[in-house]
Design goal:
seven-stranded mixed sheet; 11 strands; binds 4'-deoxy-4'-aminopyridoxal-5'-phosphate; globular; 348 residues
Length: 348
């Protein structure tokens, strides 16, 4: 086990966090937080005049039961994007420390690092979009605090090889973040079983994809208790708002609905991939374990613009490392996918 404490920025180690009376008292005559006891201007029984529970207790307990994870290994954020930022702020001293980002991948690891003035080192994924562990270890120095990985990777769609992750965990003594935003689409490939033996491993998850709740802004992470405690130390006191928390508690009672979405999206993904492969202009369709498909097509920019002119918005990924002429399309409803395919065929 790694001494995670030693990786934390000294000012965060010493930080005296904000405290609230609600840390210990959630019920009673609540005259501690300068709220409006008369109610809220929106009339309903949601108690929106009250601050939400800073400890996220109901959320953590309910999700913990669902995932069979102790609640002290869970932390909720305003989307997983908030957690990416908090992790950089906990572990990376601006200007001094660095993070490693195997590319191409999700853009926010770099953006969050840049915002925090933490340098990021780009390492190319190999030709199968797997991390090159030797190259990562070569780039690591004593100031490398975090390696960001994403599985299934956005925008390539592939899951990462477990042997490689285990090798990295054996050799790298910093924090390893694996973003599992799309793991619901192939849950058997989750790295959840590695968290218990590796207190430097942090898994990010989100309600924005398979759960269909991008609008409520909720993500969570699974990590060792020490990391979770630091996340609570640095977060804004009431980051999980009441409306979001209520929506998520409700969602956790509707797991079957999520499963039915996943089945449908996966079958549509296979249909879209097959159709794309049949087009001569499409040079490659990358296998996907997520709810999107990456494909390589001649003159991608032009195709992207023409689709947009026809009201079909996909993502041009051709400026990312080793993704020349690659476009990424999210899997939509059957009708949306049909329209996308029909329009694409008419363009080419
Ligand atoms: N991680 C990955 C890999 C993503 O693709 C996205 C959204 N595109 C996020 C995180 C952000 O998730 P959230 O909505 O929970 O902030």
């Amino acid at each position: 086990m790694i001494d995670v404490e030693k990786l934390v920025r000294p000012n965060i180690q010493k930080l005296k966090p904000y405290t609230s009376a609600r840390d210990s008292h959630l019920n009673g005559i609540l005259l501690d937080a300068n709220e409006n006891s008369l109610g809220s201007v929106i009339e309903n029984n949601l108690e929106l005049n009250r601050y939400p529970d800073p400890a996220q207790t109901a959320l953590r307990t309910k999700l913990g039961d669902l995932l069979s994870i102790p609640s002290n290994r869970l932390f909720f954020g305003v989307g997983s994007d908030e957690i990416i930022d908090l992790l950089i702020r906990i572990f990376c001293e601006p200007v001094v420390d660095n993070v490693l980002i195997p590319e191409p991948t999700y853009g926010m690891y770099k953006v969050s690092s840049d915002i925090n003035n933490v340098s990021s080192r780009e390492i190319p994924l190999d030709e199968e979009f797997q991390p090159d562990i030797n190259a990562i270890l070569k780039k690591v120095d004593e100031k490398t605090k975090i390696v960001f990985l994403c599985s299934p990777n956005n925008p390539t769609g592939n899951v990462l090889d477990k042997n490689k992750i285990e090798r990295l965990l054996k050799s790298f003594k910093g924090i390893v973040v694996i973003d599992e935003a799309y793991i619901d689409f192939d849950y058997t490939k989750s790295f959840q079983d590695l968290v218990e033996q590796n207190n430097n491993l942090i898994l990010l998850r989100t309600f924005s994809k398979a759960w269909g709740l991008a609008g409520v802004r909720c993500g969570y992470c699974i990590a060792g208790e020490k990391v979770i405690n630091y996340l609570f130390k640095v977060k804004a006191p009431y980051n999980m708002n009441k409306l979001t928390a209520d929506a998520i508690l409700h969602a956790l009672d509707n797991v079957e609905k999520k499963s039915s979405f996943i089945e449908l999206l996966k079958s549509e993904r296979e249909r879209v991939s097959t159709e794309l492969k049949s087009l001569e202009i499409v040079e490659k369709v990358f296998p996907s374990s997520a709810n999107f498909v990456l494909f390589k097509i001649s003159n991608a920019k032009n195709v992207y613009n023409k689709l947009a002119d026809n009201g079909i918005i996909i993502r041009d990924r051709s400026s990312q490392l080793n993704l020349d002429d690659c476009l990424r399309v999210s899997i939509g409803t059957r009708e949306e996918n049909d329209k996308f395919l029909k329009t694409l065929k008419s363009i080419v």
